[in-house]
Amino acid sequence: MRVLIVEDEPVIALEIEAIVLDRLPSVETVVACSVRDALKIVDGAPLDLAFLDIDVTDGKTYSLALELRLKHVPFVFVSGADRGEAPDELKLERRVPKPFRPESIARELDALARKDES
User: Fold this and answer.
1) 4Fe-4S as a keyword (predicted)?
2) Is the predicted pLDDT of residue 116 greater than 70, yes or no?
């Protein structure tokens, strides 16, 4: 299983990664701090799940989320951004508000993993 984490704050990226690896130790995690870097990862080896901050170093991850949707990769936004700012087609996507509690990330990871298996 391969999990993408898109987050431009290193401490938060590490925290999400630690939660994922604690829950699923055999997972490969890939971290990107920008939409550009994340799109390169998406175009590479297949992904199974993704956690996306909305506001990263080079803009918003909405285009990335739409690309993941096209590739049938389940994802969740992990962001303090206002849900109302999202494009209509992404307003109802899964979301963990920042600041988050580790169990919120773990719960979403479990839900995404189940979705990926179906």
Assistant:
1) no
2) no
